[in-house]
Amino acid sequence: MSTAYEPVIGLEIHVQLKTRTKMFCGCELSFGEPPNTRTCPVCLGLPGALPVANARAIHYALMIGLALGCAIADRSIFHRKNYFYPDLPKGYQISQYDEPLCRGGALAGVRLHRVHVEEDAAKLIHVGESGRIHGSEQSVVDFNRGGTPLVEIVTEPELHSAEHAREWLTLLRATLRSLGVSDVNMDEGSLRADANVSLRPLGSSELGTKTELKNMNSFRFLERGVDAEIARQSAILAAGEEVDQETLHFDPASGVITSLRSKEEAQDYRYFPEPDLVPIATTAEMLADARAAIGELPSARAERFASDYGLSAESAHTIAFRDELARYFEAVVLAAGGEHGQQVANWLSQLVARIGDADPGASKVTAEAFAALVVLVATRELTAGAAREVLDVLVERGGDVQAIVAEHDLATLAGDDDGLAAVVAGAIAADADAAEKVRAGNEKAIGALIGSVMRETRGRADGAEVTRLIREQLGV
Amino acid sequence: MTTSSPLDLTACQAAAAIKRGGLDAGDLFELYRERATGDRLNAFTWVAEKAPKAPPQDPQAPLGGVPLAVKDLFCTEGVPSQSGSRILEGYCPPYTATVVERLAAAGAPLLAKTNQDEFAMGSSTENSAFGSTGNPWDRARVPGGSSGGSAAAVAAGLAPWALGTDTGGSIRQPAALCGIVGLKPTYGAVSRYGMIAFASSLDQAGPLTRDVSDAALLLSHMVGERDRRDATSLDFPEPIVLPSRSDLNGVRFGVPAELTGDGIEPGVLGAFQATLELARQLGASVEPCALPHAPHALAAYYVLAPAEASSNLARFDGVRYGYRAADAADLLELYTHTRHDGFGAEVKRRVMLGTYALSSGYYDAYYGRAQRVRTKIAEDFAAAFAQFDFVVMPTSPGVAFELGAKVADPYAMYLNDFCTVPASLAGIPAISIPNGLASPPGGGTPLPVGFQLAGPAFSENRLLDVAFALEQALGFDGSAARR
To answer: Across chain B, what does the average pLDDT equal?
Structure first.
């Protein structure tokens, strides 16, 4: 008998902060400058140089902590995490250990373990075909990235599928983006995720042996990597074997998972309090500044959209967690006189289907035109089908909705004035069989007549009006 | 030697003479440069070829242009700075330590870099890649350490004054062994930016000088506004002024039994008792005080300092600067051979001690416990200062020992720090002044002894004032070492 297993996933997310200067020195952050041009004795770890904590980075970290509902420590300290690697010029990373800046908190139902501040390592570039260290001809170090401020966000192990993990990470990214504290770009490494994955028998509350999947650099790879790891662990458990605690690498090209190091090879980081820095004493003023700097968060915005505009929870969430959608949505609702919130949301998904991830505010569809379109549909002056045609035109070349409707003759046919009665009469004449069935009380048969009218009018007829006219003309 | 030689002037006197126009700063620099170049004690690792052009020497600058010797571990732009280690062979930093920069700006140009124990780990200056330094009172003996080069240079008149660093006694002990004044300031009073670190929570720069007034003058330009490049540096609450006190009326000395009994050489103890008697004659009260945790200070120190050192020294790998082993077949060998050849035995010993103390499963038993002892010692001093103005004790348990005598016995070497480590752990200021000569155990030529006073944080002005009064009364003559 095979056991059913449940995946248990926790994420460790590294976020590069968008400060002007590095975490512990005055070097400006680097965005593609020539290698080793944004360095100084401090971030190169030269003998005698000393770190000084970047107050702006602490401010950003406090914003993140407050936005995620964390408990902020009155006093937190930096620790040295000692390990030896060529991208770490001091031989240790300045990080936080048992007295982090923030603990607890939650986002979208997933609780957080902690949030802390640290410095990024330099960038190793492995010269060779694979771009990885194995098989490379040489490795060179670019210290421009070394010392970039990082915030590490650690979740509790409360995600239960790869898809859930990916979706949750998009919500986190939206929240961080709305704070303006990071570029949160996975391609560029300003948002990086490691996943801790384990399986346990369904219904069990104990955690199984976990593996750590390092540095998946896109949302897609995160989902695929975690899925692959779940499959790998499932196969191991199904074979009656045990999962080894190890750190793994997922190769998105091949889908292959390889071991980076086993538990036995795990580092002893020899943490101890960083004697070159003083504790961070979080003052009421620092907290007030951080709080004041936080605009409306996506989660709060979703609640407001639901209550103010009557959006369904799902629509509110979808729109509120994408800044540009949320901005556009509000502009459209405003242009529509504050009405038709849910219809705007529904039509917005039509627009997104056409323009993808692009900002609708930057599209050719102005908020006013979009509002006009939604109002015409709401007042039944335009059918859904006709409106989709108008939207196609708007996306293509923009313009005025009424003009497009007139140009393409898309206005809803709703009465004798429009000749709809004549079209209905024609449909009845053309399908006597259906007409007879309707007269005989077969309600379903009316569909064929409606369909015929719709075809004839290219979808411009108002469905309710067509039904009314058929019944009227058939005398039922 | 005639009394008219500028070499006989203290730094204060020389600065005053320059300001009056009776002495040319350039001539003085050249005079000392020649002396330093002819040094036979091996006190220096580098001597300037000529007086530095920048900053231009203004005779009215507070320090007048009186040249300064600086311990090797201070980073000096373009000038070798190896912290006495082979692993930094040929390393010339791209920047200058804050304190050296401040002193140069105040009119103390860089004369020379001085020898030291490797990474300041030692009490004899024998652990140096540059070889050992001789004590000017007896060249067959050590000058103390780790700032032994600075102490020997000042005592021998090869430099008017010098900078050292003190982690567990590395200014005070060599000052005592060479018969000069050495002051370890309050932790945080002097910027550590540009000091090649040994143990970051303890390292502190301070002056080594011929007399107390010189120490005050040099210190007055080392402290002040905090250095924004050193997060642990602090604003000094008041300016340092030249000392002037001539009596000790109303001054209360506490004498800790824990640091003035067992393990102290009889000659040292004799000089100590005589100085206490002199202090009484000057009006001081002298009473026993308790530092109950002081006997544990050395053990705590030899956990904490190596722990920090093991991390501070991890950056030396032969890749980016300094010595690199030439015979490495691959990257791992490059690291291991570089460190094998580049680090001396004492450094390796402490890196291993420190790595062990920080290891998972041992942290609480070693590092955690040592930190608790450190807190207790600070509390002991705080309690003592509720009753006494200063805690006084010998600086070093013995006079200068013979070169090589303790090299094979690290523990005996560590005991040199017995009387200096407690103030280091407490982060409080302490000064050593020469209080006479004493014969080594077993007899021989009398050698200098140091008297140590420790005060509360930021009590430097009072400490210097009281030390000055004692110095005047003691009348110690160190001129023999300058011949």
So the answer is: 96
Per-residue pLDDT reduced to its tens digit, A305-327: 999 999 999 999 989 988 889 99
Question: Are the C-beta atoms of residues B216 and B464 closer than 8 Å to each other?
Answer: yes
The burial class, CB within 10 Å (0-12 / 13-18 / 19+), for B409 is exposed
- CA of A40: which chain B residue's CA is closest? B94
Q: Which fold has domain A416-474?
A: Arc Repressor Mutant, subunit A (1.10.10)
**Stretch B230-256: mean pLDDT, rounded?**
98
d(CA B34, CA B7): 12
Answer whether B251's CB lies under 8 Å from B466's CB.
yes
The phi-psi region of residue B166 (left if phi > 0; otherwise alpha if psi is between -120 and 50; otherwise beta) is: beta
If asked whether residues B356 and B430 sit together in one domain, one would say no
B155 exposure class (CB count in 10 Å sphere: 0-12, 13-18, 19+): buried
Can you read off the two tokens belonging to residue A425? 């009469």
Residue with tokens 């967690």: A321
Asked if residue B220 and residue B148 are part of one domain, the reply reads yes
Q: What is the residue range of B185's domain? A: 6-250+388-482
- B74, B88, B231 ranked by CB distance to A52: nearest: B231
Domain boundaries, chain A: 5-291, 296-408, 416-474
B356 touches chain A (CB under 8 A): no
* CATH number of the CATH domain containing B195: 3.90.1300.10
The Cα A128–Cα B360 span in angstroms is 37
Query: Distance between CA atoms of A472 and A475, rounded to whole angstroms?
Result: 5
Which of B368, B397, B413 is the C-terminal boundary of a domain? B368
Alpha-carbon radius of gyration of chain A: 30
Give me B305's structure tokens.
């300092």
Q: pLDDT exceeding 90 applies to what percent of chain B? A: 92
How many angstroms from the chain centroid is the CA of residue A223? Answer: 13
**Parallel/antiparallel/unpaired status of strands A92-95 and A106-107:** unpaired
Q: Looking at this predicted complex, what is its ipTM? A: 0.96
Determine the pLDDT at residue A342: 93
Residues 6+ apart with CB under 8 A from A205: none
The answer to whether residue B17 is domain-embedded is yes
The pLDDT value given to residue A209: 95
A286 in B contact zone (CB under 8 Å): no
Q: In terms of Cα–Cα distance, which of B103, B229, B70, B166 is closest to B429? A: B166
Per-residue pLDDT tens over the stretch A444-472? 888 888 888 888 887 788 888 888 888 88
* B275 is a domain residue: no
Q: Could you read off the pLDDT of B380-405 as tens digits, one per residue? A: 999 999 999 999 999 999 999 999 99
A268 touches chain B (CB under 8 A): yes
Q: Are residues B242 and B340 in the same domain?
A: no
φ, ψ at A174 (rounded to 5°): -60, -40
What is the tally of structural domains in chain B? 2
Instruction: Please state which of the ranges B54-68, B283-297, B341-355 shows the lowest mean pLDDT.
Output: B54-68
**Final residue belonging to a domain, choices B368, B402, B432:** B368
Q: Mean pLDDT throughout B217-226?
A: 98
| Helix or strand (DSSP H, E) at A433 | helix A432-439
Residues of B with a catalytic annotation lie at: 71, 146, 170
The structure's pTM equals 0.89
pLDDT-derived band at B49 (thresholds 50, 70, 90) equals very high
Could A275 and B192 be called an inter-chain contact, meaning their C-beta atoms sit closer than 8 Å?
no
Smallest Cβ distance to A270: which of B195, B231, B358?
B358
Give the Cα separation of A225 and A234 in Å (integer): 14
Quick check: B231 and A276 CB within 8 A? yes
pLDDT over threshold 50, residue A385 = yes
Query: Nearest-CA residue of chain B relative to A86?
Result: B319
B58 and B111 fall within a common domain: yes
Q: Which amino acid is at A323?
A: D
Tell how many helices (H) and how many strands (E) occur in chain B. 14, 11
SS3 B43: coil
